[in-house]
């Protein structure tokens, strides 16, 4: 049969010409294909209920086979919101997301919410009665019934944004229903119907979804403005707290310095303020056990006779080095815990060690030195808790608050207009993390010790050292030197130490510092500056002190 039709078409083409051929092909085309090209017919009945639900029934004919319709469920409502239409309870087809699959001919039913919106003194029901079909719609009729008298009606056909009216729109003589008709809609085109009812006729309302924008997400309103004001009060309160705790240092220091008439020199011998050692002073002043404190303690151990520093000879391009020699006259039992920890870390069973070789076991012991220094300032009653622990606790709390603020900012900005609340948390967390570095507060006793320490520093650099007997100058000025390391005055005091000996004449060595051959005390200032710098560098290269 198929061969016969092809032969017939070929004969027609030869005998009757193109026009006759077209007519012949049309006549031999299967009926379903002709119906698909002609388009389907859609008879729609819509009923708006009191609760605002729109029930839709569609009778689809004029086409056969699988058809698809993609519902329009989101439109622009205003500058800030989108309007949503929610479809449910589909029958006669398979609804997957926004897509309805139908096998024509069929009768389809579904419910729509979100079609009603206030419009002045009326309620408007708006729905895309026809839209998103995969085939042309040759003819569509729509009948709408609602919970009240029709106040007005309109319709639009074509593309979704079209302002062209539909083929016809009218209401029945009772005014309770509206009818619409449209012909020849291409695939994807829409027929939108709008029917107005009296205000309050139904409980329907538009479903709005806030459209994301930075302006809306971080809007300044009563809630966000109040939160920012509260943050400002919190930050000011934090500043006040820091002033009350830290400002006390300044108040006590000023008072103690005004009434401090003592001198660290008694009967020609050195007596540090409150018996405080250099490492303790360094930790007290900056609230950190750092490399300078350890370096000053090494110099102090040498000055007090526990070890000797021997500068090693070197060639022009050799790196400077020093031998630290254990002295038998020193009794380790007289050392404070942090000094003993450092003493043991240096020698570790050895009688002497080069500064360049202080690694391995020395590095592993430095953590104990640092812990012992912090424990010492707490034991002295200068701090209620270890300063490093206090800083870490507040800083970690600030970092955690920043993390919470970041998550809150993303969530609040995406789902609400309260993004500024999250930013407030981030700012508060940052302030807490930074302020945490200043949270360790000295006790009243610690503030008094700091005042005496600063008075000693002023005395040390005043240049007015009083009448110091010559026989005591080497020992006295040497005892000053470790404190000068803490106060960043090592070169100044090294020159003073190098300028005198027990009898007022220049010498080649000190009792605690020996130089190589051809070396004398005129080079001591430069040697000490290099020694303290090299020692601090060696310590800071270890894991415990690397970040200080």
UniProtKB/TrEMBL annotation:
Q: Which residues cross the membrane?
A: 218-244, 394-414, 420-439
Instruction: Please give the superkingdom of this protein's source.
Output: Bacteria
Question: By what name is this protein known?
Answer: DUF2207 domain-containing protein
Q: Keywords assigned by UniProt?
A: Membrane, Signal, Transmembrane, Transmembrane helix
Residue limits of the DUF2207 domain?
43-196
Span of the secretion signal?
1-35
- Which residues belong to any copy of the Predicted membrane protein YciQ-like C-terminal domain? 270-494
Cross-referenced InterPro entries: DUF2207, TAT_signal, YciQ-like_C
Q: Does the keyword Zinc-finger apply?
A: no
The species is Nonomuraea rhodomycinica
């Amino acid at each position: 049969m198929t061969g016969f039709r092809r032969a017939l078409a070929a004969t027609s083409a030869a005998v009757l010409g193109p026009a006759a051929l077209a007519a012949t092909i049309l006549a031999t085309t299967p009926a379903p294909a002709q119906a698909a090209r002609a388009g389907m017919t859609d008879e729609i009945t819509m009923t708006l209920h009191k609760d605002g639900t729109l029930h839709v029934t569609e009778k689809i004919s004029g086409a056969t086979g699988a058809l698809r319709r993609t519902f329009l469920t989101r439109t622009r409502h205003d500058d800030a919101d989108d309007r949503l239409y929610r479809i449910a309870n589909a029958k006669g087809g398979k609804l997957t997301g926004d897509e309805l699959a139908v096998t024509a001919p069929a009768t389809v039913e579904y419910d729509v919410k979100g079609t009603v919106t206030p419009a002045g003194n009326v309620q408007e029901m708006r729905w895309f009665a026809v839209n998103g079909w995969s085939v042309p719609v040759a003819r569509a009729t729509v009948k709408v019934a609602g919970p009240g008298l029709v106040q007005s009606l309109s319709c639009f056909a074509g593309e979704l944004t079209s302002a062209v009216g539909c083929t016809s729109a009218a209401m029945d003589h009772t005014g309770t229903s509206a009818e619409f008709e449209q012909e020849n809609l291409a695939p994807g085109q829409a027929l939108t119907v709008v029917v107005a009812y009296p205000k309050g006729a139904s409980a329907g309302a538009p479903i709005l979804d806030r459209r994301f924008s930075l302006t809306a997400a971080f809007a300044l309103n009563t809630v966000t403005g109040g939160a920012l004001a509260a943050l400002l009060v919190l930050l000011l309160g934090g500043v006040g707290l820091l002033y009350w705790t830290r400002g006390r240092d300044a108040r006590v220091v000023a008072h103690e310095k005004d009434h401090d008439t003592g001198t660290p020199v008694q009967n020609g011998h050195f007596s540090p303020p409150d018996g405080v050692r250099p490492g303790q002073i360094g930790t007290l002043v900056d609230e950190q056990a750092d490399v300078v404190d350890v370096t000053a303690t090494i110099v102090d151990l040498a000055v007090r006779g526990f070890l000797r520093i021997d500068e090693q000879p070197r060639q022009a391009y050799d790196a400077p080095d020093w031998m630290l020699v254990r002295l038998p006259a020193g009794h380790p039992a007289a050392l404070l815990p942090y000094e003993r920890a450092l003493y043991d870390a240096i020698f570790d069973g050895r009688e002497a060690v080069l500064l360049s070789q202080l690694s391995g076991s020395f590095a592993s012991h430095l953590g104990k030195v640092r812990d012992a220094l912090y424990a010492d300032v707490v034991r002295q009653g200068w701090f209620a808790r270890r300063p490093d622990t206090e800083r870490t606790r507040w800083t970690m709390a600030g970092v955690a608050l920043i993390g919470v603020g970041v998550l809150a900012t993303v969530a609040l900005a995406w789902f609400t207009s309260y993004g500024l609340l999250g930013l407030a948390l981030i700012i508060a967390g940052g302030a807490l993390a930074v302020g945490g570095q200043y949270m360790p507060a000295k006790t009243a006793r610690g503030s008094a010790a700091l005042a005496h320490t600063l008075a000693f520093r002023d005395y040390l650099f005043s240049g007015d050292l009083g009448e110091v007997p010559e026989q005591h100058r080497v020992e006295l000025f040497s005892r000053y030197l470790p404190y000068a390391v803490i106060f960043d005055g090592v070169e100044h005091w090294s020159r003073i130490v190098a300028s005198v000996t027990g009898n007022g004449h220049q010498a080649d060595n000190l009792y605690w510092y020996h130089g190589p051959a051809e070396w004398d005390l005129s080079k001591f200032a430069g040697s000490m500056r290099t020694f303290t710098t090299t020692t601090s560098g060696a310590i800071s290269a270890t894991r415990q002190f690397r970040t200080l």
